[in-house]
Design a protein that fits this description.
281 residues, alpha/beta, 11 helices, 38% helix, 15% strand
């Protein structure tokens, strides 16, 4: 079984070489992608609206409605705007309605901002994981993130984004979102995945794909060693740099299935890890 742990519904704007303009997807489009690519279940992530970045993705209420119509296949997460809402009460309500996690959490404040700490506190109390983007614009401050995951040992963090994945190398180029070339082992990503039981890594989007495709010699050993901490996701319906759609383009799936790793490692990444985190097994 394969579970895509990072999908959205709604609209995205493409800047890829082969596609320009807006792309909108429905629940039927998501299910069609899943059927075509052999995806049994998917986590559907709402996302708070950030002006000017070319997205019109669904918020929590619409995600809950869609997942409620397909409970055997679609798994809802929730988000809240930390600056204007009663965070603790709202998250509790969403969990009672069936949300299994929080995210995609992407807000333009430091990762250890008091508003973020309130969210982590509420999620830890509800026993749900937080899937968050770490980048130069959102939840920024990798060193602070290392302290946060220690401060919340009972809260599972599923990290992704350029600010996370460039730290896979012990010599990261922090001037670039998507560094290329060889990876020097021993980066901060490896340290966190090794040292912190509550930290997992989401392989979705350009950042995850770039991290695994830039140095195959490193990648196969990394994936085998940390197969218990890596989670398959695509970022459907977002568009890659060539103008193809993550998910239907099979880019992440083909990369993983083409690696020389054990079948045990592959099963963990494609389904077992996220199922355990969400209590689906």
């Amino acid at each position: 079984m394969i579970l895509d742990a990072h999908t959205h519904l709604g609209g995205v704007r493409s800047g890829g070489e082969g596609l320009r303009g807006w792309v909108y997807v429905s629940v039927g489009d998501l299910l069609n992608y899943m059927d075509t690519c052999g995806i049994s279940k998917a986590v559907v992530l709402p996302i708070e609206k950030v002006p000017g970045i070319g997205e019109d993705l669904w918020l929590t209420e619409r995600v809950l409605e869609a997942c409620g119509e397909h409970p055997g296949r679609l798994i809802p997460f929730c988000t809240v705007n930390p600056s204007v809402e009663d965070v603790e009460a709202r998250i509790k309500t969403y969990v009672e309605k069936g949300c299994r996690g929080f995210g995609e959490h992407r807000v333009p404040i430091p990762v250890d901002h008091p508003a973020n700490v309130s969210i982590y506190t509420a999620c830890e109390a509800q026993g749900i994981p937080v899937l968050l983007e770490i980048s130069g614009a959102y939840n920024y401050g990798f060193e602070s993130f290392m302290k946060i995951v220690s401060a919340f040992p009972r809260l599972v963090f599923i990290a992704h984004g350029p600010g996370w994945w460039r730290e896979v190398s012990a010599e990261p180029d922090r001037s670039m979102n998507y560094p290329s070339g060889p990876v020097k082992p021993g980066g901060l990503v490896e340290k966190l995945l090794s040292d912190r039981e509550n930290v997992y890594a989401d392989l979705s989007a350009t950042s995850g794909y770039n991290a695994l495709s830039r140095d195959h010699g490193f990648t196969e050993g990394f994936v085998e060693r940390f197969s218990h901490k890596l989670i398959f996701g695509t970022d459907f319906p977002c568009i890659d740099r060539e103008g193809l759609q993550y998910g239907p383009d099979r880019r992440h799936l083909s990369l993983l299935q083409g690696l020389r790793v054990t079948s045990v490692a592959l099963r963990r990444i494609l389904c077992e890890n996220i199922s355990a985190v969400l209590g689906l097994t």
